[in-house]
From TrEMBL:
Superkingdom field: Bacteria
Name of this protein: Hydroxyacylglutathione hydrolase
Stated role: Thiolesterase that catalyzes the hydrolysis of S-D-lactoyl-glutathione to form glutathione and D-lactic acid.
Biological source species: Atopomonas hussainii
UniProt: Zn(2+) 1 binding residues: H56, H58, H113, D135
CDD domains noted in UniProt: hydroxyacylglutathione_hydrolase_MBL-fold (cd07723)
Length: 264
C-alpha cells in the first residue's frame, strides 16, 4: 500500500518519497532541489504531493521546498529552531503527526549535526517503520558535528539505536561505502561488518542504492553505535598512541571516534 522511492539528487543525496497508492498521495523528505521530485510527479500525474518533511536547514535539504510548495500546495514541516523556507508546521521533537492516510509519525529531536535536527519515524502499523533521519545517523556512520557536541550526537544516536530492529534507516546520503572503509579500520574483526562490505560493494558495482539500511544492521556494523565495543576502544587507544595523545577515558570514546573519522 505504501511505496518508498529513493530519488537521487546532486552527487550523493537521496530525496525520499513515500507514496500511499490507494489515495494517490505522497510525501517527500528533504528536497534539496525540486527537479527530481517534479520529474517523478510528471511521470505519476495522478499522485498529489501533500507533505514535505524537513530534517535540518542545510541547503542540500531545503533548496527545493519553495518551488514544490508553490507547485503543489504541500504542507511543509521542519525544525522550529532553524530557518526553513515556507515552513507551515514548526517541530521541536516529541510531536505525533499523521502525514499521509493511515500513517503515524513520531518526531524525534536528534541534535548534533545541527542543533535543531529532527528525525521522522513513520509507521503504518503493519510494515517495518521508516526512519527519515537526514544527516544524523548514516548507514555505517554519522553526520559531522557542525553545530552540536559529541555528547549531543551520542545521545541522539543512542536514541535511534534503541528503535525496533526492522526499522528502515532512510538517511540522506549515499556514504555507505566510504563509511564502511572507516568502520573496517576501527573494527577489523567484526564478521557482520566484513559481510556487509561485500554486499555494499555488490550493490555499488550494480549502481544500486545501499539504502535503506536497518537499525539491526547499524547496531551490528556502525562504529558510532558501537563505541562501547572492546575492539573499538583498543583501536582508539592505538590511534591516540600514534598521535602521542594521552589514553582515552570511557567517557569520550564517541568523541574520539568522530575526531578520528574527520581525519581518516
Ligand atoms: Zn546536513
Amino acid at each position: 500500500m505504501y511505496q518508498l522511492i529513493a530519488l537521487p539528487s546532486f552527487t550523493d543525496n537521496y530525496i525520499w518519497l513515500l507514496e500511499h497508492t490507494p489515495t494517490a498521495t505522497c510525501l517527500v523528505v528533504d528536497p534539496g532541489t525540486a527537479e527530481p521530485v517534479k520529474a517523478w510527479l510528471s511521470q505519476h500525474p495522478k499522485v498529489q504531493l501533500t507533505n514535505i518533511l524537513i530534517t535540518h536547514h542545510h541547503p542540500d535539504h531545503i533548496g527545493g521546498i519553495s518551488e514544490l510548495k508553490q507547485l503543489t500546495g504541500a504542507q511543509v514541516y521542519g525544525p522550529s529552531s532553524e530557518k526553513i523556507p515556507a515552513r507551515d508546521i514548526a517541530l521541536h521533537g516529541g510531536e505525533q503527526l499523521t502525514p499521509l492516510h493511515g500513517l503515524t509519525c513520531q518526531v524525534l529531536a536528534v541534535p548534533g549535526h545541527t542543533l535543531g535536527h529532527i528525525a521522522y519515524l513513520i509507521s503504518d502499523g503493519a510494515q517495518a517503520p521508516w526512519l527519515f533521519c537526514g544527516d544524523s545517523l548514516f548507514s555505517g556512520g554519522c553526520g559531522r558535528l557542525f553545530e552540536g557536541t559529541p555528547e549531543q550526537m551520542h545521545h541522539s544516536l543512542t536514541q535511534l539505536s534503541a528503535l525496533p530492529d526492522n526499522t528502515l534507516v532512510c538517511c540522506a546520503h549515499e556514504y555507505t561505502a566510504s563509511n564502511l572503509r572507516f568502520a573496517a579500520a576501527v573494527e577489523p574483526d567484526n564478521p557482520a561488518l566484513a559481510q556487509r562490505i561485500v554486499e555494499v560493494q555488490r550493490l555499488r558495482a550494480a549502481n544500486l542504492p545501499t539504502l535503506p539500511s536497518t537499525i539491526a544492521l547499524e547496531r551490528a556494523t556502525n562504529p558510532f553505535l558501537r563505541s562501547d565495543s572492546a575492539q573499538i576502544r583498543k583501536k582508539i587507544d592505538e590511534w591516540q598512541a600514534s598521535k602521542n595523545q594521552p589514553k582515552s577515558s570511557n567517557h569520550n570514546a564517541f568523541a574520539l571516534l568522530r575526531q578520528w573519522k574527520n581525519e581518516f
